[in-house]
Amino acid sequence: MTPSLTLSASSDRLPVGALLALAMTGFICIVTETLPAGLLPLISDGLAISPSMAGQMVTAYALGSVLAVIPMTIATRGWRRRNVLLLTIAGFLLFNSITALSSHYGVTLVARFFAGVAAGLAWSLLAGYARRMVAPQQQGRALALAMVGTPIALSLGVPLGTWLGGLLGWRTTFGLMSGVSLVLIGWVLVKVPDFAPQPAHQRLSLRKVLTTPGVRPVLAVVISWMLAHNILYTYIAPFVAPAGLAERVDLVLLVFGIAALVGIGVTARLVEPLLRNTVLVSLAAFAAVSVLLGLLGNVPQVIYLGVAVWGLSFGGAATLLQTALADAAGDGADVALSLNVVAWNSAIAGSGVVGGVLLDTWGVAAFAWAMLLLVGVAFAITWAASAHGFRPGARGAGKPTSLGH
């Protein structure tokens, strides 16, 4: 039986089991994407290719996400929601299994591309799915819980996968990811409610969604904020080297991950009453970190302090931005969230290029000031988007809030 779409606005209980299943889906997305980075030497030896060729497994995954997310999201809007979720998880099961078994580089790249397709569809689905499970005033808290898999994957999942790869072999690690996907399929069938597809008359075109007031400002903040974040995250090893922390990158990233988890908890409490202010404070905190690292980035204690504040300010970013985007898009939330996937992954790809140019031209000292410029742009856009995109006051104040689709 399909659960009713009419949710009790008075209930304060979250469907924790269902939301954690969504969080586990996000965890699998992130770990599947980043595993090759920690296993490059092993993959290189196993497939008899160079490390740079092995690194293209990450590129193929990101390419699959960016190219397929919008058409796949539009193509599956007429499907029942749980079927779409199960399709994405089955994609991880299949393509991680192929990656684990393949001895041919070309086949491996194709599998990685289609694993990225599954991830892109998953990311476009998760936020809207979490929002539909709860009453409007709980949507921010629900989304925060559904997104908790991301910082866990970045702080713990990837190092654990790298360790297991060294212990058991890289193929076994990808096989374990397939096993986790199989368990998750059962979890979803038991715990996650199904929802009907969005009615055809409510499905907005890509152009209509893009021209909806508030959508473009939020997407612009996504690009500028994530570009600034990923310049530092991608090149964290050379950045902390002048402070003598080249051998402690794992500890630096652990500090970031733990702080990001705290940030998600804080965001869960603030996203409903103070979404706009929380975004502004998060961006201001990151700007302050940029200045601090730009002036004293060669002091180890400053690095650890800065990374902790950076993680705290970033932890709730996905929740804040996806909530703002879905609120602005209304009936076009699914398409808008697919655009968010494109913006987010484009920023990740762009950070590699921009960071590389900065590193080769001016060195790591330029990172902090480039980050400050980008965060400043994000802050200015957020501040200006008070009518649409980042409204002041509590979410839904003065207007009905959509449950999302």
TrEMBL record:
<keyword id="KW-1003">Cell membrane</keyword>
<feature type="domain" description="Major facilitator superfamily (MFS) profile">
    <location>
        <begin position="18"/>
        <end position="388"/>
    </location>
</feature>
<feature type="transmembrane region" description="Helical">
    <location>
        <begin position="217"/>
        <end position="236"/>
    </location>
</feature>
<feature type="transmembrane region" description="Helical">
    <location>
        <begin position="278"/>
        <end position="296"/>
    </location>
</feature>
<feature type="transmembrane region" description="Helical">
    <location>
        <begin position="53"/>
        <end position="72"/>
    </location>
</feature>
<dbReference type="GO" id="GO:0005886">
    <property type="term" value="C:plasma membrane"/>
</dbReference>
<feature type="transmembrane region" description="Helical">
    <location>
        <begin position="14"/>
        <end position="33"/>
    </location>
</feature>
<dbReference type="GO" id="GO:0022857">
    <property type="term" value="F:transmembrane transporter activity"/>
</dbReference>
<feature type="transmembrane region" description="Helical">
    <location>
        <begin position="337"/>
        <end position="358"/>
    </location>
</feature>
<feature type="transmembrane region" description="Helical">
    <location>
        <begin position="84"/>
        <end position="103"/>
    </location>
</feature>
<feature type="transmembrane region" description="Helical">
    <location>
        <begin position="176"/>
        <end position="196"/>
    </location>
</feature>
<dbReference type="InterPro" id="IPR050189">
    <property type="entry name" value="MFS_Efflux_Transporters"/>
</dbReference>
<feature type="transmembrane region" description="Helical">
    <location>
        <begin position="251"/>
        <end position="271"/>
    </location>
</feature>
<feature type="transmembrane region" description="Helical">
    <location>
        <begin position="142"/>
        <end position="164"/>
    </location>
</feature>
<feature type="transmembrane region" description="Helical">
    <location>
        <begin position="109"/>
        <end position="130"/>
    </location>
</feature>
<dbReference type="InterPro" id="IPR036259">
    <property type="entry name" value="MFS_trans_sf"/>
</dbReference>
<dbReference type="InterPro" id="IPR011701">
    <property type="entry name" value="MFS"/>
</dbReference>
<protein>
    <submittedName>
        <fullName>Predicted arabinose efflux permease, MFS family</fullName>
    </submittedName>
</protein>
<dbReference type="InterPro" id="IPR020846">
    <property type="entry name" value="MFS_dom"/>
</dbReference>
<keyword id="KW-0812">Transmembrane</keyword>
<keyword id="KW-1133">Transmembrane helix</keyword>
<feature type="transmembrane region" description="Helical">
    <location>
        <begin position="364"/>
        <end position="385"/>
    </location>
</feature>
<keyword id="KW-0472">Membrane</keyword>
<dbReference type="Pfam" id="PF07690">
    <property type="entry name" value="MFS_1"/>
</dbReference>
<feature type="transmembrane region" description="Helical">
    <location>
        <begin position="302"/>
        <end position="325"/>
    </location>
</feature>
